[in-house]
Amino acid sequence: MDLGHSRPAVHRGMRITLVALFIAQGLLKVIIFMMPGTIAWFESTGTPGWLPAFVVALELFLIVQFGLGMAGFYPDPAKAAECKAC
After folding, report:
1. In the chain, where are the structural domains located?
2. pLDDT, tens digit, for every residue of 14-69?
3. Residue 73 carries which DSSP code?
4. Which of 9, 10, 19, 74 could crosslink 67 through cysteines, CB 3.0-4.6 Å?
């Protein structure tokens, strides 16, 4: 039983699911805990009060960027190099 032809679809589905989990984890700080709760938690650990806004913005940006790449929405540089060599 050869399932090699469906492997790319399965991998893409797994990547999209993982991206959804990453986005849910990032939005947890913004939607559930909200910024005052996130700031209070950061301050309870001894970090400055301005840091959570920067961390949340950076985290959401990176999650979206890495998520799009993992889900396959950005071209694969290795495949692009193969096509140029053709």
Report:
1. 7-85
2. 777 877 877 787 788 888 888 899 889 889 999 998 998 888 888 778 777 777 77
3. -
4. 19
